[in-house]
Amino acid sequence: MTVLDRPLTQVDSARPLDRLSDFPAIPAGWSYLDTAATSQKPQAVIDAIARAYGETYATVHRGVYARSADMTIAYEAARTRVAGFMGAGSADEIVFVRGATEGINFVAHSYPDKRRVLLSQLEHHSNIVPWQLAGWQVDVCPLTSDGRIDLDAAAAMLTPEHSMVSFAHVSNVLGSVLDARRAAELAHAVGAKLLLDGCQSAPRIALDMAALDCDFYVVSGHKLYGPTGIGVLWGRPELLDAMPPWQGGGAMIDRVSFEHTTYAPAPGRFEAGTPHIVGALGLAAAIDYVEAIGLDAIHAHETALVGQAREALRGVNSVRLYGPEDAAGIVSFNVEGVHPHDVGTLLDEEQVAIRAGHHCCQPLMAYLGVDATARASFGVYNSAADIDALVRGIERVRKVFG
Ligand SMILES: Cc1ncc(COP(=O)(O)O)c(C=O)c1O
Q1: d(CA 309, CA 131)
Q2: pLDDT at 145
Q3: Relative to the CA of 220, which ligand 1 atom is closest?
Q4: CA angle centred on 36, ends 166 and 168, rounded to 5°
Q5: Which of 5, 54, 96, 353 is most buried, judging by how many CB atoms fall within 10 Å of its CB?
Q6: What residues are paired with 197 via a beta bridge?
Q7: Nearest Cα to Cα of residue 382 among 296, 304, 278, 293
Q8: 215 CB less than 6 Å from ligand 1?
């Protein structure tokens, strides 16, 4: 079998969205509520990765033999698959990177007009530190009282000195969803570009680059039911064309001599070295998987779970909730008088896996006036039973800590 013959992901769309049985790493009775950190992998993705390494493996872009030519076609087909998923104009707008972190570092480093960037108070460290390292002047947009990026404040802060605005599409702590269209209008009104950090939106919200009207968009594969080590930077073609390569090596060149080297056009110019071939194929399989379920169905499912979780947690004395009611797939909370690490440890004893800590968002923690929060985040495999387990676990936390 060649890599091109791989069977299509089998998803039965008549089944309800509880997809637990597709995920071999989630044993019965274990409530996995840490999808915002990384999603579990469906068997279809594991099979695609095993097949790529097991039966069809070869390098890409260089081999003169059939297996390598097939793998090159499959790798480039994965790029086309990603472009379709993101509503990009063409596969040439898709740069494969290691993850969202690398995508943002790449733009912060290579965008030619490095002046002022407007970030927000809720950004992940991956959307703060790269701009600092690359020497940008950083301004910080505050949040509304319910934890959204305050776009009225952004409108008042933006000046023609800003050449970039970089916001999370969905907050990894609060689950708040950005009004991306308005953010794009505000950025463009002062001549700035808009980068959207799509780590938490790509697994939850159908994407359409043209409709969002942003200029750059980053995604991490491992949060989208795909493998680690692969992600995507989408950029408007005219912006990618104007950006110099940021890493040199094989595959990104046109001609090399000691006197003068010329480079391949985008996206190849930005993919130095042997790429994460199997990662790209695994990501394409993950996209097959989520698209067969449907992003709208996933969004509706997770929104319902967020509503149930917030309602149930509100009923537990001494629980404080963060973020807006209509959060996408993520609920952060604290139990009064108990450190979130203790909450997480006791929940683990009850077979409930949550995240506890600063979530790589120390400036947001400072803004909220806490060191850390507990966070439950949902995926296609979760159901109301996981929320019951979470609430039972928190009742036990309250008993143990008096
Ligand atoms: C909003 C957000 N941005 C960026 C990142 C960094 O993603 P990665 O570590 O996959 O590059 C994360 C991961 O937690 C995230 O949630």
Answers
A1: 35
A2: 95
A3: 10
A4: 10
A5: 96
A6: 168, 218
A7: 304
A8: no
